[in-house]
Amino acid sequence: MSKQLSVFLENKAGRLSSVTKALGEARINIRALSIADTSDFGILRLIVNDPNRAYQILKDAGFTVSETEVIAVRVQDTPGGLATVLEQMSDANLNIEYLYAFLGTSEDDALVIFKVEDIKKARIAFKEKGIQFLEEQELYQL
Amino acid sequence: MIYWDQEKECMSRQSLAELQLRRLKETVFRVYAFVPAYRNKMDARGIKPDDIKSLEDIKHLPFTDKQDLRDNYPFGLFAVPMSDVIRIHSSSGTTGKPTVVGYSKRDLDTWSELMARALTSAGATKKSIIQNAYGYGLFTGGLGVHYGAERVGASVIPSSGGNSKRQIMLMQDFGTTLLTCTPSYALFMAEIMEEMGINPTDLKLQSGLFGAEPWSENMRREIELKLGINAFDIYGLSEIIGPGVAIECDCKCGLHIAEDHFIPEIIDPVTEEILPDGSQGELVITTISKEALPIIRYRTRDLTTLNTDACACGRTHARMQKVLGRSDDMVIIRGVNVFPSMVESVLLDIPGVEPHYLLIVDRLGNLDVLEVQVEVSEQIFSDEVRKLEDLGKLITRELESALGVNVKVRLVEPKTIERSEGKAKRVVDRRNI
Questions:
Q1: Do B324 and B337 lie in a common domain?
Q2: CATH 3.30.2130.10 domain span(s) along chain A
Q3: Which segments constitute the ACT domain (chain A) (predicted)?
Q4: Secondary structure (DSSP) of B132-184
Q5: How does residue B341 score in pLDDT terms, banded at 50, 70 and 90?
Q6: What number is the average pLDDT over the span B377-400?
Q7: Which residues of B touch A (CB under 8 A)?
Q8: Are residues B125 and B271 in the same domain?
Q9: Residue at a domain's end among B300, B328, B356
Q10: Over 60: is that where the pLDDT of B290 sits?
Q11: How many domains does chain B have?
C-alpha cells in the first residue's frame, strides 16, 4: 500500500507553486500528481519519493495535508490496457473513489494510481486476477 | 474563598435597593450641578434632581450614548476638576472620535475592588500567579485587571498582549495559574502551544478570565478543553468603568452586575421603553458611585437579559445573560440581524471545525450576501472532493437554519484568517451603503 499526500489548496494564485517550492527546496521529488478542483478549492494529490518527510515539510509550511493509502497498478501501455484492468476491478466489485495515470519508466506499461474503497480487498483481487501493482518502495524509488 | 467582599456581593436585595437609591440621588444631584451637558438634557425634559424619589424614577432621566462622549470630547462630561482626575483612558477612536474616560482616586479604588471580585470569583487568591495578557495602555483592559490582581495580592505578570511565544514561555517558567486576555487570544495561544509541542496540561494554568469581546458557550468549551482550564467571562466597558462591571461565578449561569455601583436596565433599543424582567433587550447602565465620570443611563448596545432570582453561589446581584452580541458587531443582512457569536456557536457544534472564522458581507446588485470563511483543519480535511463539499453543505445548512439568511461557506486554508492578540475581527463589511 502506497502513501499519497493530499493537500488542501484554496483557488488563489500561487498556492500550488508554494507547495512545489517547499518540496523542491527540501529535495523532495514528485513522482506523480493530480488536482481535483471545484470553484472554491482544490485538492492536490501527490506521490513523492519520501512521503513521511514531505508530510512534515508541508505541515510545517502551514498546509492542511493528510496521508491517503492508494495502490499503483501497472497497466499495459497499449489501446485497451486500462479498460481491461477496470473491467476486472468491476468484476471483483471494487469501488473506485478516484484514479489518475502517469507514464511509468518502462516503455511497455503505464502506471495508474487508484484510491479504492477497500484497499485490502483490492490487493487480494489484484493478486487473484494477475493484475500487477507496485509495492510501496518500488513506487517511491521510480 | 469564593467572594472577595461578601458583605457587598451578598447583601439583601432590600438593602441593595436602599443603597442604590441613595447613591442614585447623589449622582443625579452631582451631574446636574457639575456637568452642563446633563443639566441641559434634564432641563429639556423638565426633570430636576429632586424628582428622583424612587428607583423607578430613573426612567425619567435622559439616556447617554457614545455620541454624548464624543460631543463633549475630551473632558466635557467630567464632574470633578482635572486636579482630582488621576487617570485617563481612551478608546482607539477607530469608529470616530475617541471616547475619553477619567478616574478619581476613589474611582480607581472602586475599579480595583470590582476587579478583585471578578478575579476571586475566577479562583484567584494571594497565592495565584496571574498573567495579564490584556493590552496595557489607553485600553482599560490591561490596567484594570492589573490593579484588581494587585488588590487580591496575587503575583501579577504584566505581560500585556502580543508576543505569544514569550507569553507561553512565561506561563511555563513562572508557573502562571490564572490567565487573563480576550477569549480569541486564549485560543490563539492554545494553537501556538500545539505548534510548539507544549501540552497545556503540563502547565500550572487552572483558570482564565476572558472578556472584552462576545464569546459563545461553545467557545468556552473549546478554550476549557484546549487549555485544560476553567474559563470565566467578565463584562465591562470603559464608559462605565472598564472590565469588572459584571462577573461570572462558578455557576456560569449569567454574570453578576455589581449593583452596589451600577443600576442596570433592559430597554427596547427602538422604542427605548423599559422591558419587563427576563425580556431580551439592550442593556442600559447608570453608574451610582463614580466621581470623575458619572454616567446616566448609558446605552451599551449590548443585547442581553436580566435575572434577579437568587443564584446558587450566594451572590444577590442581578445576573445578565452572557452577551449575545454588541449591536456594533451586528450585521444586518437583508433585514436579519446576524451576530458573529451565532456563527461561532454553530461552527463549534460541528466536530473538527475550528473557531477561526470570518464573516464577509458584500452587496451584489441590490442583494446582501454573506460569506462565512471557515478554516479547513486536518480533522475535517478529506482527499475526496465529495466529502469536503458535503462538509461545506453541512456547515451551510446549519448556519442558514441558525441565522435565517442565505450563507455562502468558503473553505479556506488553515491560519489564513487573521489571528488577533486583542479583540478579534470577525466581520468585514464590503457594502458601500
A1: no
A2: 2-68, 69-141
A3: 4-80
A4: E-SPPSSSHHHHHHHHHHHHHTPEEE---S--HHHHHHHHHHHT--EEEE-HH
A5: confident
A6: 92
A7: 376-378, 381-385, 388-389, 392, 410-416
A8: yes
A9: B328
A10: yes
A11: 2
* CA B289 to each of CA A55, B53, B285: distance values in angstroms, whole numbers, following the listed order: 61, 18, 12
Same domain, B310 and B238: yes
- Which residues of chain B neighbour A61 with C-beta distances below 8 Å? none
Query: Is residue B349 domain-shared with residue B281, that is, in the same domain?
Result: no
How many percent of chain B have pLDDT more than 90? 75
Residues B166 and B307 in one domain: yes
Q: Mutate which of A64, A100, A114, A115 to test chain B, going by most B C-beta atoms within 10 A?
A: A64
- CB spacing of B389 vs A38 below 8 angstroms: yes
Domain with B300 in it: what CATH number?
A: 3.40.50.12780
Per-residue pLDDT of B360-377, as tens digits, reads 999 887 788 999 999 998
A8–B376 CB contact, under 8 Å: yes
User: Does B347 score more than 60 pLDDT?
Assistant: yes
| B392 vs A contacts (CB less than 8 Å) | 40
pLDDT for residue B335: 78
| Mutation choice for B interface testing from A5, A8, A39 by most B CBs within 10 A | A8
Q: Does A9 touch chain B (CB under 8 A)?
A: yes
Contact (CB<8Å) A6/B381: yes
Which residue in chain A has the smallest CA separation from B378?
Answer: A64
Nearest one of B201, B197, B256 to B229, comparing CA atoms: B201
Query: CB A43 to CB B388 under 8 A?
Result: yes
Task: Average pLDDT across each block of 10 residues of chain A; the chain has 142 residues. List them in order.
Answer: 91 90 94 89 94 94 93 89 91 92 77 92 90 86 76
If asked whether residues B75 and B214 sit together in one domain, one would say yes
Checking DSSP bridges between strand A41-48 and strand A2-10, what pairing results, if any?
antiparallel
Least confident of B45-49, B152-156, B163-167, B361-365: B361-365
A41 touches chain B (CB under 8 A): yes
Task: Assign B91 a pLDDT band (cuts: 50, 70, 90).
Answer: confident
Read off the C-alpha cell for A28. Answer: 523532495
| Residues B340 and B305 both lie in one domain | no
Domain boundary among B272, B305, B328: B328
Q: Which CATH class is domain A69-141?
A: alpha beta
What's the complex ipTM?
A: 0.84
In terms of residue numbers, what domain contains B425?
331-429
Beta-carbon contacts of residue B194 (< 8 Å; ≥ 6 apart): none
All 3 cell numbers of residue B154? 496575587
Say if domain A2-68 classifies as CATH 3.30.430.20: no
- Same domain? B382 vs B242: no
- Reported as a single tens digit per residue, the pLDDT across A23-52 is 999 999 998 999 998 888 999 999 999 999
Q: Are B358 and B428 in contact (CB under 8 A)?
A: yes
Cα(B318)–Cα(B131) distance, rounded to whole angstroms? 29
